[in-house]
Amino acid sequence: MSAPADTSVYSKDNPFPAKVTENRLLSKPGSGKETRHFVVNLAGSGLHYKAGDSLGVFPVNRPEDVVEILHRLGATGEESVMLPRTTAPVPFRDALTSKLALAGPTRKIVETLASKATHADEKAKLAGLLTPESKEVLTAFLDEREFADLLEEFPSARLTAQELVDHMRRLMPRLYSIASSPKVFPSEIHLTVAIVRYRTNNRDRLGVCSSFLSDRVQVGTTPTPVFVSHSHFGPPADGGKDCIMVGPGTGIAPFRAFVQDRAAAGASGRNWVFFGDQKKATDFLYEEDWLEHQAKGQVARLDLAWSRDQLHKIYVQDRMRENAAELWAWINGGAYFYVCGDAKRMAKDVDTALHEIVAEQGGLTHEQAIDYVKQLKKDKRYQRDVY
Ligand SMILES: Cc1cc2nc3c(=O)[nH]c(=O)nc-3n(C[C@H](O)[C@H](O)[C@H](O)COP(=O)(O)OP(=O)(O)OC[C@H]3O[C@@H](n4cnc5c(N)ncnc54)[C@H](O)[C@@H]3O)c2cc1C
Ligand SMILES: NC(=O)c1ccc[n+]([C@@H]2O[C@H](COP(=O)([O-])OP(=O)(O)OC[C@H]3O[C@@H](n4cnc5c(N)ncnc54)[C@H](OP(=O)(O)O)[C@@H]3O)[C@@H](O)[C@H]2O)c1
User: What percent of the chain has pLDDT over 70?
Assistant: First the structure.
């Protein structure tokens, strides 16, 4: 279903300074994860969205991280620096705050540090990292570090503000699958965000954008630059079609939107949701919504896979296999099949399970099953939004 024509002056190049009006923990105390529900108010923006679209968010870096870099360089922040592909200088502090990624150093800065270091121990360590035999060591070393770590470890190199900037990449907006339907929430957008927190090189790290939303955006006050990223991913235009939605973890976000959307439109097609996460007691995201949809008959089937409630892992694809005959009946009867969430492992494994189910239940050879799934994709009946 297409969204109303976008008449907004706001876009990726001119993001809307939205207010976040809600920041609520979805995972419960004791969870191994921190997954949050955000509400972003679009009132006055002229922006439109549809179920299946994503919201782009431009984050700012953590002030403590900016201050640390200034301190390690002996800079004030007032220095003028030039960013790549720009013509006007900007103050160094502004560049570090909202224009540059403070993570992701590459070999190039190790080379620069090696050429500038004056302390013998630092020079030796840098030279050791740059030998042809140390390629893997260097990759592991860089994976564990952000720019501030390198400035701390190699202080004698004394980079200038511009020299550091020349090694940094632009801070990019992050996309989040929209977890609400415009039919129910025309002037706000809901997001389901896993907050990235981990530890490397003996330092606590934060994902830039997820921690910006959770820790630095003040509800109701901080202007948060956003844009709508329109997608081909979306529920079938024909509400009579059945939908199978596989969305473990934050992958559930767009399917909350799909089901809201189809319920609001009075779509007659059935909805089958596969959700999974670590533990039922703490990670059943939007439990009340799902149980209500189920009670109202808006979700015909809800199959849940808790990976850490027992010794062996149970994943969404295991639930698919357990229900292979019915899944095949839905697919062969014209259902749409959707997957959202982790691209590296989950989406591949779900794809394998789908092929197996099509082959076994459809009585097809491996090659025929591949062709069948290819056709599903061509017909837009197999869609993925994975990251
Ligand atoms: C179309 C699309 C839709 C998306 N939808 C959602 C969504 O609905 N919800 C959602 O939460 N996310 C979603 N994402 C992912 C989201 O865009 C961000 O990538 C995510 O929030 C992380 O961004 P960040 O800025 O917080 O972390 P970053 O600062 O980008 O840090 C992430 C990086 O940290 C490193 N890292 C993370 N964990 C560890 C670890 N344990 N050990 C070592 N290194 C680690 C990895 O290098 C990783 O790439 C979506 C992405 C796309 C492309
Ligand atoms: N770097 C990575 O490899 C990686 C992988 C996944 C997610 N992430 C990131 O972690 C954050 C949180 O992710 P999320 O909340 O969306 O969920 P998630 O961490 O992907 O986990 C959701 C559920 O999927 C399970 N799972 C793990 N591997 C699976 C597989 N191969 N097939 C099916 N299910 C599988 C998890 O189980 P268990 O955890 O108990 O195994 C968990 O129960 C996101 O930012 C995401 O991008 C990173």
Answer: 98
